[in-house]
Amino acid sequence: MYVQILIIILTCTYINYILVVSFRKNEEAIPIKTEERIVETKLDIIDGRTSLGIEFGSTRVKAVLIGSDRTPIAGGSYDWENRLEDGIWTYSLEDIWKGLRVSYRKMATEVFEVYGETLTTIGSIGFSAMMHGYLVFNREEKLLVPFRTWRNAMTAEAETRLTEALDYNIPQRWSIAHLYQAILNKEPHVKEIDFFTTLAGYIHWQLTGQKVLGVGDASGMFPIDSQTQKYDQRMTAIFNDLAQAEGVPVDVNQLLPEVLVAGQAAGTLTKEGAYLLDPTGTLQAGIPLCPPEGDAGTGMVATNSVGKRTGNVSAGTSAFAMIVLERDLSEVHPEIDLVTTPSGDLVAMVHTNNCSSEINAWIKLFKEFSESLGLEISAEKLYNTLFQEALKGEPDCGGLLSYGYYSGENITGMDQGRPLFVRKPDSAFTLANFMRLHLSSAFGAMRIGMEILKKENIQIDKLVGHGGIFKTPEVGQRILASAMEAPVTVMETAGEGGAWGIALLASYLLEHEKLSLEDFLEQKVFSEAKGETVVPTKEDIAGFEQFIKRYETGLSIERTAINALN
């Protein structure tokens, strides 16, 4: 009889799982598992053999819960947008906490609906978010100015002065550039600053009480010494002198969060933190947390690109190529950021502020057009159809030109953005060329940055693409391969993204004594991973070369648009 009852329970659970997955709205489906796997997952949940990753991206907060086999078992998300307020790109603290709670609640609800278990504990947790930016607090833990995100191109003077003084590239979006610019601007709040951090560091601090940061995220705040895996003390001394000269006596070491590498303990979830995450009071305190990381680091983890001579390209609202270096670059390049992997290895980062926003805007316009004709076409079908059309376009995009600059672009020297599309009367203005153009333009600024690494003779054995632009098979991948002049692999797990990456780092927290992060990913996560590799053709490479010459020549048009539409 007990056997019959068990069979009934398993059957009901399995049917419920299929129904929930089938009818989920606005969430990525979790792969259907066997009855045996469902039982194993239930045990993982009950025994706390799970890891949770929550990442705050530019347009979405996403939570992913993984089991002991490191595959996703439940997820939840919250859509949000940054706002331009008083000339500052920002997110409110209210939105931050709402995004955290909603994404967690959706994930926990799915756990209950699919597996019949209430989530009371988790094996480990990790938080990740957009890198850089400026979150500053006084001794009373009060936010002194609204959160200034990476998207703000308002620190040009600081960028120039710091890069020269430190002999190290300090891009405008870096946290230290924001701090120094505030000092140069004589902003009143500067003398009250007791602590400043990134978005991931802020959330982690509030949930654990620990002012720490993963080395990858920290490397986007202030330069890291690759030998000590801490802030470069030669440079901190120089910065302190610069601040003193402006009448602000400060020890930047006291303001920055402590640096931790992957696998190090970063505190535990406090009772207050558990309530912030789960206001129902169901989740228990005491759960260990891994160091909070930036989206660049979680992208490296999610694509198994933390080893030397490996690289990945993350493409979404912004885009960046991350190449793990074997050696330092021979000179300072303003177009190249030097950051680190979550383990502290040096990485060359080609970061572009703009990527897919203009593509999304055109897709939205096409959707409005189809609806005006009385046609109900899903966004997914529109994307797939129009992306596939791009493969029919001419390799050089038929002489068309566009810049999807919604904000400034450091690599091309733009302090603001003006999305524009331009063509000559005799350009081949077809839908195929139009779509290929916007996909090519999304990687235009990145290609310019990669040319510098090419001249530095940086070797890349493996390049992996991930992000929304690769959801349609082959298309974005082929355009990127043409731009990078190298084979590009997209793995089946690419759609899991950074939330999965930080969940893996949380899982690694429990196994770091056994394996290096590189070996952990290779042996425990990606040993049976499958992917598709696209090798660019000679025609595609030659066509993109023509396009990028047109792109560079036409930058004066973008500058004129910025000045004219001010």
Automatic annotation (TrEMBL):
Q: Does the keyword Phosphoprotein apply?
A: no
List the GO molecular function terms: kinase activity
Organism (species):
Enterococcus florum
Q: Where is the Carbohydrate kinase FGGY N-terminal domain?
A: 52-277
GO BP terms: namely: carbohydrate metabolic process
- Protein family membership: Belongs to the FGGY kinase family.
Q: In its UniProt entry, what is this protein called?
A: ATPase
Write down the superkingdom of origin: Bacteria
Where would I find the Carbohydrate kinase FGGY C-terminal domain in this sequence? 312-508
Keyword annotations for this protein, in alphabetical order, are:
Kinase, Membrane, Transferase, Transmembrane, Transmembrane helix
Quote the InterPro entries the UniProt record gives.
ATPase_NBD, FGGY_C, FGGY_Carb_Kinase, FGGY_N
- Cite the Pfam families for this sequence: FGGY_C, FGGY_N
Q: Which ranges does the record mark as transmembrane?
A: 6-23
